[in-house]
Amino acid sequence: MTEFLTIQRFDTSLMIYVLLGLVLLLTVWILILDRRLRSLLRGKDAKSLEDVISRMHRETEALKVFQNESIEYLKNIEMRLKRSIQAVETNRFNPFKGTGDGGNQSFSTALINEKGDGVVISSLYVRDHVSVFSKPVKKFASEFEMTAEEKDAVEKSRKSLQYEQKGK
């Protein structure tokens, strides 16, 4: 029976020391966590974590608004860009090859957008005058009859656009 009491006292003493060690360990852990929490909540210029979070939320909302505005702006630019002239090709020629008049002073210039719409401007040069003509172009063709030089300028502009789109 005395052995049982000794073992029981030993177990009780050991249990008390283990519990005291555990309490000490937990106290140190709580102190470390408290210091870390205070430094987290202290923030910049003594602001609280809640202030930082609410400021970040406002900034995120402002960024979302800016993103939506930027997307709309870029869509507008893209639409305008598709209507703008994207290919300019010029074809110089001599309309009077056999007579020697004119030289290569005459030209046809195609100003075409991505859809193949635009204008062909042609100039015929003769010693005593210059004539300028323009023809509307829709889908790389005109409702008016085009000369070979005008057709060549439009075809060059189509090839130029195809080359640019392959490069994208």
Explain what you see.
By secondary structure, the protein is of the alpha+beta class. The chain has two domains: 49-83; 85-167. Helix content is 57%, strand content 21%. The chain contains three helices and four strands, in the order ααββββα. The protein has helices at residues 2-42, 49-83, 148-167, and strands at 85-93, 106-113, 118-126, 129-137. The protein has a four-stranded antiparallel beta sheet. The longest helix is centred in the first third of the chain and has 41 residues, at 2-42. The protein is rod-shaped. The mean pLDDT is 85.
Name the features.
about 170 residues, alpha+beta, 2 domains, 4 strands, rod-shaped
SSE layout and pairings?
Elements lengths: L1 H41 L6 H35 L1 E9 L12 E8 L4 E9 L2 E9 L10 H20 L1
Antiparallel strand pairs: 1-2, 2-3, 3-4
Helix-strand string: HHEEEEH
Number of domains: 2
Distance between the termini: 95 Å
The biggest beta sheet reads: 4 strands, antiparallel
Mean pLDDT: 85
